[in-house]
Amino acid sequence: MLSRIGNMLWKEGVQFLRYRLLLIFVLGFPVFNLVSAEGAIGEGIKHIPTAVCDQDLSADSRGLVRMLRNSRYFDPDYHVGSQAELEQLLETGEVKVGLFVPQDFGAKLTAEDRGATAQVLLDGTETTTALLAQAYLEETAYEYVRQMLGRGSAGGVMAIGELERVDARSRAWFNEDLREKTLDLPDELADSLVLLAVFVPALLITREREAGTLEHLFVTPMRSIEMIVGKGLLAFVVAYFGFVGMLALLVFYFQISFQGSLALLMVLTAYYILVEMGWGLLISTIARTQGQSLMGAYILCVVEIILSGRVLPVAYMPRMTQAVSLVMPNRHYTAILRGIMLKDYALVDLWPQLASLAVLGVVLYSVAAFRLRKRLD
């Protein structure tokens, strides 16, 4: 059996080296994906284009605008004279935030029995930017009010004393600097790995069928499971070396912190790749052409990435969607990768994900072997 699997592995290796398009994809895609993702992530959303309509023109209103600029989150470079002009800039997309300060802003701010109001308009077509801008503005407004109440009047002293009774201090665990790269780049690694682990095996059997050599394999003494193992070993080696390269890029080039056990991550990644390859091999037994295999693999990978919890945490998805995500290996591997890299998880902390992957692996390989019986259909 081992000799037959070895011969199949040798044959697949020779054919793989001849398949230049796939070779370029495997060698170039992981690095290109991580580098482009790092450039797109940058340092988060800062310097949001902002327009200001200041009808008060008081020292207080100018202080508010100045505090917005000093926060580095906003660039209030657009100054207009009316709310209509402010709305026009938002409609054209030149700015994402509009601040309207009414004429009596300064007077109401210093009055003891009245509150000052300023209107903020957000471009809701970019939801992420709008939500972050809203959070930034609330933080800036709190700091502005705190400074205003600190001016030496007796009423102000009492007010700021009331304001600061609650000393709220937050601390982020596992990603203390709240760097987006620390979370997003490992997720990009998981997304790239699912593409390698699915696309390569998805082409293995359909390529034989298109070349007319599948019938020759059916008349050999090889059993279906031996054929799957022989073909899958090459895909495993390719995907695993791709993972090693991407991990080295994350740690040494992008300086992403690694808190857990490297050996544990290496072993569990190999385990995950073997399970994920089951989907690719199953697609390869169903599709009739390489084009169908590529399309099926692409659709599966998109669904896996969406349901992995990267776009939206799985806990906030509808119950039916959460149930569907259980059959997606990338969901479980994303939890494993985050747990080891960021939280220093041990093997005992990951048993739910490992058990789910084990069940998926048995089911996927059993179905793929069943479809690849020694018969032509």
Structural topology:
Elements lengths: L1 H17 L1 H22 L6 E7 L4 H12 L3 E6 L3 H10 L4 E5 L3 H6 L8 E4 L4 H23 L4 H10 L16 H23 L1 H8 L2 H5 L5 H30 L8 H25 L3 H18 L11 H7 L3 H15 L7 H21 L6
Parallel strand pairs: 1-2, 1-3
Antiparallel strand pairs: 3-4
Helix pairs in contact: 1-11, 2-8, 2-11, 3-6, 8-11, 8-12, 8-13, 8-15, 11-12, 12-13, 12-15, 12-16, 15-16
Overall description:
With 377 residues, the protein is mainly alpha-helical. It folds into 2 domains: 2-41 and 177-371, no CATH class; 48-163, abc type-2 transporter like domain (abc type-2 transporter like fold, 3-Layer(aba) Sandwich). The chain has helices at 2-18, 20-41, 59-70, 83-92, 105-110, 127-149, 154-163, 180-202, 204-211, 214-218, 224-253, 262-286, 290-307, 319-325, 329-343, 351-371; strands at 48-54, 74-79, 97-101, 119-122. A 4-stranded mixed beta sheet has the order 2-1-3-4, sandwiched between helices. 33% of the residues are buried. The model is unreliable at 152-158 and 160-168 (pLDDT under 50).
Helix content: 55-70%
The total count of helices amounts to 16
Q: State Rg.
A: 29 Å
Report the mean per-residue pLDDT as an integer: 79
Approximately how much beta-strand content do the residues carry? 5-15%
Please outline the major beta sheet. 4 strands, mixed
Number of domains: 2
Can you tell me the residue ranges where pLDDT is under 50 for at least 5 consecutive residues? 152-158, 160-168
Assign the structural class, choosing from mainly alpha, mainly beta, alpha/beta, alpha+beta, or little secondary structure: mainly alpha
Distance between the termini: 25 Å
What overall geometry do the principal axes of the alpha carbons give?
elongated
Order of helices and strands: HHEHEHEHEHHHHHHHHHHH
- For the largest beta sheet, what order do the strands appear in spatially? 2-1-3-4
Q: Quick one: how many beta strands?
A: 4
